[in-house]
Structures are given as C-alpha cells and as structure tokens.
Known about the structure:
It contains ten helices and six strands. It is an alpha/beta fold. It folds into two domains: 5-132, Response regulator (Rossmann fold); 138-215, Winged helix-like DNA-binding domain superfamily/Winged helix DNA-binding domain (Arc Repressor Mutant, subunit A), CATH 1.10.10. Strands 2-1-3-4-5-6 form a six-stranded parallel β-sheet, sandwiched between helices. The chain is globular, with a radius of gyration of 17 Å. The two termini are 34 Å apart. Residues 148-152 have low confidence and may be disordered.
Amino acid sequence: xxxxxxxxxxxxxxxxxxxxxxxxxxxxxxxxxxxxxxxxxxxxxxxxxxxxxxxxxxxxxxxxxxxxxxxxxxxxxxxxxxxxxxxxxxxxxxxxxxxxxxxxxxxxxxxxxxxxxxxxxxxxxxxxxxxxxxxxxxxxxxxxxxxxxxxxxxxxxxxxxxxxxxxxxxxxxxxxxxxxxxxxxxxxxxxxxxxxxxxxxxxxxxxxxxxxxxxxxx
Length: 218
C-alpha cells in the first residue's frame, strides 16, 4: 500500500487489540489508529473528528459490551459517509453475516484471519470491493445452491448478466476479478453493479448480496 490510511478499531479484548495494532503497523502504511473498547465511545469520538482524522476503515467486533457491532453499523455510516466497515469477529453464525452485510458492512472476517488476510481485505474494500472470510464464502455458495431453483418476482428486475455478476459478488470477488472471469471491461462491470444497487435499493456489494439471499434471488 502506498497511501497512509487512518484506521479505527473497536474491540473490547485488550490483548487481541494490542496484538492486532502492532501487526498492522508492520504490515500496512498507517497514518494513525484510533482504538476503542465500545461502540458508544468510538461514535462519540467520530463525531468530534475533523476531516483529516476521519478513519478510512473501521475494524469492528460484533460481541461488544453495550451496543453490539451490528447495532452500531448504521450509526457509524450516519456519522461518516466515507468510512468503510469490516467486521472482525469470532462469530460464524449465518444470521450475523447477513445482518452485518444488510446493515452496510463492506467485509466480514474471522479473528482467526492472518494479518496478511486482514491487510488484503482492507485494500480490497478501499478499492471498492468486498471482503468475506473464505469460511463465510462457503456458506454463501451453499445458500446459492439451496435457492437456485427459486424464481421470485424480484428476479425479473435484474437482467441475466446482472444476476451473474451478483452471484460473483456473493462469492467475494472484486470488480477486477469479475471482469476477468466474464471477459468484459471493468467499466462494464461497474455499469452493471451500479444498476444492481439501484434496482435492489442498496449502497454496496454486501448489502446487495444480503438482499439477494433474503429475497430468494440467490
């Protein structure tokens, strides 16, 4: 990474938080890291920050004292339009990943992820993609298989190409990978993705995937 990024980490486990911060500083070019043990304190700080301090990435635990990670996502998005949220949790509960994606998270990683995986996830999300832990991606693919025979009314709102791209987004692929797999330009992928967001009334890829599952599209 060539640019310095500001990161906010909300994690109540002091040991994990300290270890992760030390590892990230050795792995990526960080401007500063704001660390908090609760979402409430992090939100108050975010309100007070100037434009230069505002984080690019929020690494957010789900199991927090007080306001949970999922409950806080909409508030973080409200206070900062540019903030990209990556869930970093121990939870492999299927409902958690769908709830987090629906709320606006751009990524979902397990705490067992390596520093390299977390660093790559940060870069992917900042590049406009999504990042999902491979174990979670398997769950998503399973859901696609289970729902492949459904033909909901909402399916009529997406073209065959848009449905194809939505399925690839559900596998955690970024636009460059979709472009290569479908042999189309990145601009064409971006055009279709924008239409998917508009038709599904969502703001990012994880939210589109979550709505796809809940509506039976995927």
